[in-house]
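Human: I would love a firmer grasp of how sequence relates to backbone shape in proteins. Take your time, and here it is.
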Amino acid sequence: MPGATHSTSQQITSRSRSNLALALSCLPAERRRDMVSFYAFCRVVDDIADDPARPPGDRRSELDAWKHAIRAGDGSAHPALAEVIALAVKYRFDPALLVEIIDGVASDLDTLRYETMDGLLGYCYKVASVVGLVSIAIFGCGHPASKDYAVNLGYALQLTNILRDVGQDARDNGRIYLPLEDLHRHGVTEEQVLAGRHDEKFAALMQSEYELARRYYELAAGHIPKQDERALIAARMMAQVYGEILEKIRASGFRVLDRRVRLHPLRKAMILGGYAARRLLGIG
């Protein structure tokens, strides 16, 4: 979009007020700046996909143009695009990972349901696990096990997001990410979710999805290599924040259809402070 006025990566990240933006404050200055650039790229392509003021075809065309620009190494359309293309060169990760992220957010343009958990996990891989794979390159991770950590943590974080936002997704977009095969197995209908009707069957459905998300957190924790422990500090902080959100969802009795579970800002500050102190003290 030549001639357009674009926000800087720092402005985009600051406005997002996301948990990831908070976690990045634990990183060394240069890696933090580079992660801010990468996060801005992710935020911009997600905003393109979610823009309700534009027809889906226009949004898809713009996302296709971003994919073409990445393949061509041309970042002229947007500062976030130029910065992320430069990061691929700097940290030697495959630019195809960036294309996968765009494919993931683009799937929201025409996919309102997932029939199976395998289908949902394919989506989670693109929008979260691939983000993790790029992130560990920027973090400076060198051990192969860190890739397993990134993939499993990506599944865990995205499933937590999905469980937290069941009601909001249904109300705002008529979207149900929970696999239809799981709804049917527990006797929950799409109409029930869209209408926001909580009952024992819905709670049992959410319990099974909670258990899957919890398993992915445990799988991730089992793949933290000692040599990359400090490099993964921001990811480990994210794991704790979202892991605690997941436990709050369970503690609420899975009452997510009419509310959005959050951690109190003071609790987030405590978690951030704990990891910041570890970094300053040189503790893993």
Observations:
- Confidence is low (pLDDT under 50) at residues 1-5.
